[in-house]
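WARN retry 2 of 3 for item q-0093 after timeout on previous attempt; input resubmitted unchanged.
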Amino acid sequence: MRKILPAVALLTALLAAPVPFAGEPVVVRVHYTPHDRETGRYQYVPFDVPEGTTRIDLQYAFDRAGGTNVIDLGLFEPGPLDLGTPAFRGWSGGERTSISVGVGGATPGYWPGPLPPGRWNVMLGLYKIAPAGVDVEVKVTLGSAPEGPTPVLPPPAAEPLRRGPAWYSGGLHLHTVHSDGTVTARELARLARAAGLDFIAVTDHNNTVHQLEGPLDEGLLHIVGEEVTTPGGHASVWGLRGARAYVDFRVLPGDPRIADLVRAATAQGALFSVNHPRAACAGCSWEHAIPPGAVGIEVANNHPEDRAASIAAWDALLREGRRITGIGSADWHRAPAPIDAASVRVWATELSTAAILAGIEAGRVVVMADGRTKPPELTVRFGKRTVRVGDTVAVAAGAPYEVALEVPAGEPAYQGGRVDLFWDGAPAGQAELKGTGPATFTRTTTEPGYLRAHVQRADGSPLAITNPIYVTIDSPAR
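OK item q-0093 returned
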């Protein structure tokens, strides 16, 4: 049986005549306008699931009108629709036109498991709506055939994978088939290992279902992440864990509840970091305030045309006194794009989730153009003390101190290259890398600020961006 309903009758009809049971589909059509997008970015189509249901098949269709209509798809089981609700069952965005959720399995991006009876909701995210509006058709079919056991999360791999302090190489923004990527999490791990990475964070849009794939690679640290994809910009969350763990994304630009998303991440022991703060795609640039508790901002990824603007956004935060870590990532979705351009080196006490996250939070990060080249070491020496990226050094006003950038011996990527030193985001010195010792700069400072170094290859292409060393002024005792 097919029921085509005008928009005005949608909710009334669904509440009065819930979706039939045992395979008989219902089809509902609703019309959305640009005004609907402005007043209700996320729309909900309710349907009832009776006791004994083991499978939900869902399809939706609309005229894409050459890309001027884009509508995302998600699903909620019975429960509140408030921000952070545990009723969230999964998300596929605009990648799929049909999904299935069952007791024994589900489409990537959705959690399998028992289907509680009651009122479910199809979520439609109005990403783009053409001026003429769009008709959306939703079809739901329920089944009650027996299914296999519900997949369970495997126990996490033993950590640390390696002991001892070192610069560990990693990718922090990577996608799989559970959102808009093209490979499984296990295949992603294989590619990351081949590129020389020590750890990865899988950051699918608005879900962490990839955890069901189990241990990904015994030699690679796997950090469970999510790309929180709000209508006002995207953010990575690193360090989530557990079935159906997620951070909600339904926060519009200007909504102060963006701070609630940061708190939701930290409450789960995770870090929150802004992705591609300046980007060309609709809804990708960061339009929210950056709340306290956000630890990072992506300053380099696979879109070099956005790099200068993203670094400028980072510097604006640093000049405000925000000690926020600059991150590099590949934002990887598919080959032939390199999975390690950009990547990070994190100075950590060991190769474990806790140690890597602690290193990121402390600013002990160098952004690198690939996954294998060893990072440069930026240090500041004043008196008997030497500090590195992420550290703070107190110097006497007007007293000289030495800044040094040392490159790893035998690394051909640095040969003939150049280092540019920056103070509070402005150029503060330049030196050629000659391979005969560190590049050094002597400075004096009368005001507090921060130092950072950028390294270029001989051909002028970027190779490394260090995080800051913070300089404070040591007031003499009276």
